[in-house]
Amino acid sequence: MRLTLFTDYSLRVLLVLATRTESLVTIAELSKAFDISHAHLMKVTHMLGKSGWVDTVRGRNGGMRLSAHPSKLKLGTIVRHLETDFALVECFGENNRCVLTGGCELAAVLAHAMQAFLAELDRYSLADIASSSPALMELPLWQEVTWQARVKRPTLEVVPGVADALLSEPAPARSRKKRET
User: Mean pLDDT in runs of 10 for the chain (181 residues)?
Assistant: First the structure.
């Protein structure tokens, strides 16, 4: 499953807001820090405001801030709310016309995988991720986090191609297939 850019941008905004507990953040600041269009961030912040996770303040000295403590916001909840379509295959969607429906194990396997994916996200709060993301300190928007211990090293360094490697078939399964043939 690939998350949409809308969810990606929303998570980035929420991470910054999780570190900026002492002041408001503006769309202009976020746009500059992430090199994302102002128009996209307007849509993102509008939705985050409607969700109740973000308070927005209008006016000259306005901006936004988290409305809840970052430890209360679970990533699984956020992604479920922001993603509009978890239909990985046709039979998960509303207009299902797949002739295999009802006699195909793929749907069950993908449903279990989706449940595992979301369960993993449910294990982490916005605070967990923000406190383990030293790259946030590199942004001009960062403030010292007052609600959490020092920033820890991330558990996985993400470089180009790492997502493909993580999603590729595990090595033990490949060797087992070779032996079976």
Answer: 79 92 87 92 94 91 91 93 77 76 80 89 92 80 53 57 58 48 46
